[in-house]
Amino acid sequence: MKIECFTTAAAFDILHAEWSELLTHVHHNRIFLTWEWQSTWWTAYHPGDLWVLAIRNDEDQLVGLAPWFIEQRVKTGRTIRSVGCVDVTDYLEVIVHQDYESAVFEALAAYVDENQSCYDFIDLCNIPEGSPVLKYFPPLLQARGLSVEIKPQEVCPVIELPSEWDAYLESLDKKQRHELRRKLRRSEESAADWYSVGPEHDLTTETNIFLRLMASASPEKAEFLANPKNVTFFKRLVPLLTERGWLQIAFLTVEGRHAAAYMNFLYNNEVQIYNSGLDVEAANGISAGIVLLGRLIQYAIEHNYQRFDFLRGNEEYKYRMGAVDTHVFMLMASYAVVPATSN
């Protein structure tokens, strides 16, 4: 295995085609690992010095990619982190060809060990359960003298979708099934309708409506959108993912007013609920968010998606809709004792 280290943003252009090809051979291909997501995130935030490690086999095929950067932090000094970490990205890991996992992590651990003068601490976030990072990397780092800690970070509730809408409804708790049906009926009586943004819509206008509803949903979301870097990230990402066919922006209208919104990813046979917005006044007393969510689950089933992923966060409504927890983890490592917290 040969490793090349890229330290400038030119890495994204140089690796673009190979990056996308590699993703077709990984353990789990997620939208957050795509060139589109990672390059857009770096352009918007670039919080440190890029440190992208490209791992090739003897035939010069790209078989591993560690999109990392080194950030100066108060408690942990020069810290290796994943491009995308942490707030706007839900799953992150080393991108590894499924036929080369053991060899890639062996080479990666050796490289990290040989270049320990470049950093003080490793802090990798948002690693999904079942990731090869968790399987291979810790023992290889420990064998080279690093102290390693794996910590639970958050949960990602998911629904494994049945093939029929009625089967989904029957899978719910009796009370929740009754409540969902009641809310859907009431929405029909209240002149509520929903749509997904398509080629017939102006994407910029619809994006701005979504951001308005997102900001009105909670003070936390309003504060998030007060940061111009976050708005830049959204506005650059939306047209790029729309062009790829990976984005669904959906609205519920009540008597013609936008009342609720979801921004979802349609990727690798999954629907992932990324963010939402709500205008309580426009909702006019109906449970607009739940109604739209129910329509989106129905849409996913009718279009043969296999999984409905709510992404990070343990909000109660996700479980009422039938979701079950999966987990994401943090990997922290250093040659000294690993601190109790990575902040």
Molecular structure report:
The chain has 343 residues and is α+β, with helices and mostly antiparallel strands. It folds into two domains: 2-153 and 327-334, Aminopeptidase (3-Layer(aba) Sandwich), CATH 3.40.630.30; 162-305, Gcn5-related N-acetyltransferase (GNAT) (Aminopeptidase, 3-Layer(aba) Sandwich). It has helices at residues 10-23, 35-45, 101-114, 132-142, 165-171, 174-189, 203-217, 219-225, 228-244, 280-283, 288-302, 316-320; strands at 2-6, 49-56, 62-73, 77-82, 95-96, 121-128, 147-160, 192-196, 247-254, 257-267, 270-278, 307-309, 324-334. The two termini are 33 Å apart.
Q: Element order, helices and strands?
A: EHHEEEEHEHEHHEHHHEEEHHEHE
Q: C-alpha Rg, in Å?
A: 21 Å
What is the CATH architecture term of the largest domain?
Answer: 3-Layer(aba) Sandwich
Q: Which word captures the global form?
A: elongated
The fourth-level CATH homologous superfamily of the largest domain is Gcn5-related N-acetyltransferase (GNAT)
Strand content: 25-35%
Structural category: alpha+beta
Poorly predicted spans: none
Averaged pLDDT, please? 96
Please tally the β strands and state the result: 13
